[in-house]
Design a protein that fits this description.
The structure is a single chain. The chain has eleven helices and seven strands. With 285 residues, the chain is α/β, with parallel strands linked by helices. It has one domain: Vaccinia Virus protein VP39 (Rossmann fold), CATH 3.40.50. Strands 3-2-1-4-5-7-6 form a seven-stranded mixed beta sheet, with helices on both faces. The protein is globular and about 50 Å long.
């Protein structure tokens, strides 16, 4: 990066940041997952983002726990018969390549053209474990995403949605609209998402979020209702796992945070306490 060019240029660059943490976890002898593609996908820019942005490497345990929980819920739902996975804002996720998946599984990645083009270039010589399709689409285009959801609903009878690291950049109204759009399609049975508490959002806005706001990617979504935010919009929580207790089980956070992780946590309504978690949601019947 030049001296005058920001290390994070847009929201897509945060995918390189996430890949950096997957690469570092992969290097560990006790890794919770292995992503042999993460180092290439992160590139030098991913490393620079992590090492330059405020608190860029301070919470590696949270990124690792989030990936681990998404993997766990995903594997569980595939065992339960999911036929299609739709990864919205897929970024540089390499799960179709790194996970043991049935070759009959349909995997759809949706994201902006630039980030998907970069990913295709890096992974050009690799073979996914299942059927993989990439769709260039701006998810803020409501009409276009509704048309896509309607098309996908005709192609499979049991569909799982993934939104990893996406919703925090949306307003509450935008998240509610997306949830309603997804609840219309009967095949959209499950949804794996991550959310944060208002207390954590305020902390993040004062550090990393300040720099991301400058490139048009502010942190915004942190519902005080917690996972119950989605109930009026067609979805209910089946399982909720906090990132800190999950990471603490594997001794990833600093010792003081591991002590805090012993305290009871609410998996429902959230408030001042910093909290983030991964939720497996079911469409309301």
């Amino acid at each position: 990066m030049s001296e005058n060019q920001p290390v994070v240029r847009n929201i897509s660059d945060t995918a390189r940041w996430a890949a950096y943490f997957r690469a570092r976890e992969t290097e560990r002898s006790d890794a919770l997952f292995r992503d042999p593609y993460a180092e290439r996908l992160a590139g030098s820019q991913g490393t620079e983002i992590a090492q330059t942005i405020t608190e860029g490497t301070s919470h590696a345990w949270a990124w690792v726990a989030r990936t681990y929980l998404f993997d766990r819920f995903l594997a569980q739902e595939i065992r339960n018969g999911v036929e299609m996975v739709v990864n919205l804002a897929a970024g540089l996720d390499a799960r179709p390549y790194r996970m043991a998946l049935p070759n009959s599984l349909q995997w759809i990645e949706v994201d902006l053209p630039e980030i998907l083009g970069y990913k295709e270039e890096i992974l050009a010589g690799e073979k996914p474990a299942c059927s993989l399709e990439r769709i260039r689409l701006d998810l803020s285009d409501t009409a276009a995403r509704r048309a896509l959801f309607a098309e996908l609903a005709r192609r499979a009878s049991r569909i799982l949605i993934i939104t990893e690291g996406l919703l925090i950049y949306f307003s509450a109204e935008e998240v509610a609209a997306l949830a309603r759009d997804l609840s219309v399609g009967v095949p959209f049975e499950r949804w794996i998402l991550d959310i944060s508490s208002p207390g954590l959002l305020r902390m993040m806005q004062r550090t990393t979020g300040r720099q991301l706001s400058q490139v048009g990617a502010p942190f915004r979504f942190a519902p005080p209702e917690g996972p119950e935010f989605f109930a009026p919009h067609g979805w209910r929580p089946l399982e909720v796992e906090g990132l800190l207790p999950t990471a603490a089980r594997f001794k990833r956070p600093p010792f003081l945070l591991r002590l805090i992780a012993i305290l009871p946590e609410s998996k429902g309504r959230q408030g001042r306490r910093p909290w983030s978690g991964v939720c497996l949601m079911a469409r309301n019947s």
